[in-house]
Amino acid sequence: MENIFERIEKVKRIFMRIMPKMDSQLVAKGTENPMSNLTISEIKLLHLFKDQEKYKMSELAKACGMPLPTATHVVDKLVKNNLVKRTLDENDRRVIFVEFTEEGRKVMTVCDAHHKENVKKMMSILDKGDQERLVSTMEQFAAVIEEISQKMEKKKTIKENRILKTVLAFLFAAGAIFSPLAAAEQKKLSFDAYISEVKANNPDLKSTALFIDAMGKKISQSEMVYFPRFIGNYTYLDDKSGAGFGSTLPLKENNTYSLDLGLSKKWNTGTVTSLGFTNSISAIDLSSPYALFPGLTVSNFTGYSTSAYVKVEQSLIKELVGGATEAGINKAKAGVRSGQYMKQFAAQQQLLRARSTYLALSLARDVVSFRKQELKRAEDILKWNEDRVYNDLADKGDLLQAKGFLGLRKLNMQMAVEDERKTSRAFNELRGKEGSVVEESVTGLDEITSFYAKIEELKVSGKRADVLSAKASLDSANFAKTETAYSLLPDVSVFGKVTLSGLDLTNDGSFSQVTNASKPIYLL
Q: Fewer beta carbons below 10 Å: N end or C end of the chain?
């Protein structure tokens, strides 16, 4: 029996060596395969619908030989690509079926034609006699597998089970040659590529970037107190109230159009500088003739008034000495910087978690591989003990111990697979994806550690964001202390204003009086 097993293993090794060459023949360059963007798991699941119209999820998982969560993840992707759909059972709405969509049928039809053409090209290399022998051998091979499978249902032995597993693995590999798509090489996701993907797609990092940008605009907002302010005002007055008490002008109606322009700016010393210009036109209608000037009597007239001024205000205690406004602005800036640094620290922690998760997934996969080897050795030990007990070379205690050892290895394997699944979910969440299956391969832990082992000394660059946040928070508190202290003190202000005025019956005359400074007004 061992000789048979070794012969099968030899054939399998030869076959696996030539598979890549066969694959390249099946998918020629330039041909379009409708399933080229699908994974092997997805293709495997789609082919099941050629034998049965619809499946329950548990039936699909069993037929594919996948865990139910993995099969559910594969179905989710196929539903998203509109190749299959979920439907409710008409008799029991708690039951959900999975079945082909029209798009899925079309894809499979095109794929089958593509596959048939590839097989024809490959078989054309052989003459008819060789073709017949190959097909006949495969039919006999399938019949033997079916016979072994039926016998296994009646009597399951360790040795037969071992042979069956090997033969089925070989048959699966043979089926890959004649499948619509050869097994594609698993895409590798490097450490740096994963971190770049996390930076681009992680929701927390995206929100952090938006927050930092928005807080940066708050700094500009706090400085707006020093921005120049322009004020413009246009006024129209229609006054029919007549002359007021003490007025010598027999006023009947006054229509006034006034334009006021002003520009002011506050400086960091607390000084406020203002410039202003006013021009008004008043149409006066009198109730009786009036001697406006000697020799000039009017019943109505239009007067023009123009003025320009410069004004300076200064707070001596709160602003010039204490700098209350400047302290308030610096307090706001430091508070914003503190918040920005803390968000940056959270982003750094998220990236650190992403790096740790990548390493954890690499380790988890190495552990799964190691546990598989352990499980294989435990199965070999059990087989060896079974043979010894069968030949009266050992007692049943050794066999029970080997079975217990195998059970422990199975438990370790289950725990390793579960750990890989959890790590894969965290791996996907960090890059903005769902699911507990990572389809890409990752860099091995040995390769990563060997890279860092070459670094003799780690160099520190930059400063910790949380430390910078604490310093900025302290600065904000000190500025707040200064602002509060001076805002509570009494203040002394200095105010000065120089106005140049003009008043005339013509607009040019009014402007001329202003430019000649013939009617200045000083206020202190």
A: C
Chain position carrying tokens 């490959």: 122
> What's the whole-number mean pLDDT along residues 167-189?
50
**CATH number of 150's domain:** 1.10.10.10
Q: How many Cα atoms occupy the beta-carbon half-sphere of 278 within 13 Å? A: 14
| Closest CA relative to residue 41, chosen from 183, 159, 147 | 183
Confidence tier at 394 by pLDDT (50, 70, 90): confident
Is residue 490 classed exposed, middle or buried when 0-12, 13-18 and 19+ CB atoms within 10 A define those classes? Answer: exposed
Residues of the domain holding 96? 2-186
Are residues 341 and 262 part of one domain?
A: no
Is the pTM above the cut of 0.85? no
pLDDT in tens, 226-238: 889 999 999 999 9
Run of H or E including 235: strand 229-239
> Which has more pLDDT, 67 or 205?
205
Q: Tell whether 177 and 236 lie within a shared domain.
A: no
CA-CA distance, 167 to 159, in Å (whole number)? 12
The answer to whether residues 339 and 212 touch, using CB atoms and an 8 Å cutoff, is no
Q: Both 312 and 339 in a single domain?
A: no
